[in-house]
Amino acid sequence: MTTKTAKGLTTALLLLATLSPALAEELTLEGKTIGITAIGTDHDWDLKAYQAQIAEIERLGGTAIALDAGRNDQTQVSQIQTLIAQKPDAIIEQLGNLDVLNPWLQKINDAGIPLFTVDTATPHAINNTTSNNYSIGAELALQMVADLGGKGNVLVFNGFYSVPVCKIRYDQMKYVLEAFPDVKIIEPELRDVIPNTIQSAYSNVTDMLTKYPNEGDVGAIWACWDVPMIGATQALQAAGRTDIRTYGVDGSPEFVEMVADPESPAGAVAAQQPSEIGKLAVQNVARHLAGQEVKPFTFAPAVLITKENAAETAADFLPK
After folding, report:
1. Distance between CA atoms of residues 1 and 184, nearest Å
2. Which helix (DSSP H) or strand (DSSP E) does residue 183 occupy?
3. In whole angstroms, what is the distance from residue 13 CA to residue 236 CA?
4. Which of 21, 52, 140, 259 has its CA 20 to 30 Å from the CA of residue 235?
């Protein structure tokens, strides 16, 4: 074998080695039907994750049966019953109240239908695709504590503790605060609601500013998602309270824009990538149906957008 031939063979083998993983990752859902049930799509995050699942199923050649429960627990239960009866090749469940859902997710297992979830940590799912909410909860809390200088009172919205991602973020926030005894949560905690989230948060914060009128009475406002923080920030602006900052999770464009505005009291947001999460969930379904091993969790990266780094980080989460 000549030196030239050997070099050519080596190059070909290296090219093959480089291409092999990509070829192995060629996924298909041709001839497959995938059911989707989402608790709701009125929130930017929920809609993007839901739409991405449908688009990726169709891109891979499958058929999507996509159902939106309109923020009604019993409607989602009915959707699950409907999907079980239709016997799709797999079901993807997105968010919702785990206390209500778990018995019905077990019924999906009992029917022999592979279950995958988006932002729902349950033992009944083969895989849950989500952000790393443990790190999100801790990182956002640490940013809040840093902005407070390690001392101050926090208003906390805690209306959705039964939603797994909210529970994780709240618990991580409380865990961080154990190390900072001079940062205290004001009791009783506030409750965020759906629908009318922004209006309700605006009203609640306005009332609390009347109760705590002095600078230093409240230093921060926190919620496990960012839609209530839009209303909270608006209430602070209306009251002229520049001494309080707001903190939330998801990356709704309205709140990202507030964080990026130097004049706004919005402090930080942990911005997720819902379209990527929805896409990855479908790819996990395709891998499983192709006989490949799928791990219990798939984490998509999130970005902490703060007042200090917004110039570099916010643009990707704002409308183009």
Report:
1. 76
2. strand 183-185
3. 63
4. 140
Q: What tens digit of pLDDT does each residue of 85-112 get?
A: 999 999 999 999 999 999 999 999 999 9
pTM of the full structure: 0.85
Residues of the chain with pLDDT > 90, as a percent, come to 91
- pLDDT tens digit string along 133-167? 999 999 999 999 999 999 999 999 999 999 999 99
Helix (H, G, I), strand (E, B) or coil at 289: helix
8 Å CB contact between 163 and 96: yes
Q: Tokens 């009992």 appear where?
A: 110
Q: What is the mean pLDDT of residues 251-274?
A: 97
Task: Please state, rounded to an integer, the average pLDDT across all residues of the chain.
Answer: 93
* Tokens found for residue 13: 């083998």
Per the CB < 8 A criterion, the answer to whether 298 and 280 are in contact is yes
Structure tokens belonging to residue 95: 């968010």
Question: Which parts of the chain fold into alpha helices (H)?
Answer: 3-24, 44-59, 73-86, 98-110, 133-148, 164-177, 197-211, 227-239, 253-260, 274-289, 310-313
Residue 296 dihedral angles phi and psi, to the nearest 5°: -65, -30
Q: Is 144 exposed, middle or buried (CB count within 10 Å of its CB: 0-12, 13-18, 19+)?
A: buried
Q: Are 246 and 236 in contact (CB under 8 A)?
A: yes
The dihedral sign for the CA sequence 210, 267, 50, 118: negative
DSSP-derived pairing of the beta strands 303-306 and 266-271: antiparallel
Q: Is the pLDDT of residue 117 over 80?
A: yes
Phi and psi at residue 189, in whole multiples of 5°?
-65, 155
Question: For residue 12, what pLDDT is reported?
Answer: 39
- Residue 206's contacts (CB-CB under 8 Å, 6 or more residues apart) are 235, 238, 239
| pLDDT > 90? residue 186 | yes
Is residue 62 within 8 A of residue 33, CB to CB? The reply is yes
CA-CA distance, 45 to 49, in Å (whole number)? 6
Q: Is the pLDDT of residue 5 over 60?
A: no
